[in-house]
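Repro:
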Amino acid sequence: MAFGDYPAEYNPKVHGPYDPARFYGKADVPFGQVKLGELGAWFGRRNKTPNAIAGAVSRAWWRWQHKYVFPKRAGIAPFFQLTVASMTFFYLINYTKLKHHRNYKYH
């Protein structure tokens, strides 16, 4: 699969219009239904190539867009989510500088 192409599993006659938020590969047990004994085998069945990881991130982005941004009466939730995510990200990347400014209590 080249960059920008449809997934190899996508068949327009079977699936209809293409949805970037949908996984067209073989269905597997959802992560929430995996038992602890089967967890290693479940992770072993995952495709860990860079293209597969990029596809999973892309599907997550599109699902988030369809749920919070694209509805007609979209609220303010996506703006708050992006604000909290960016605040957390910048706190984490600056943590090594911020931890030196702690107020220590000496007894």
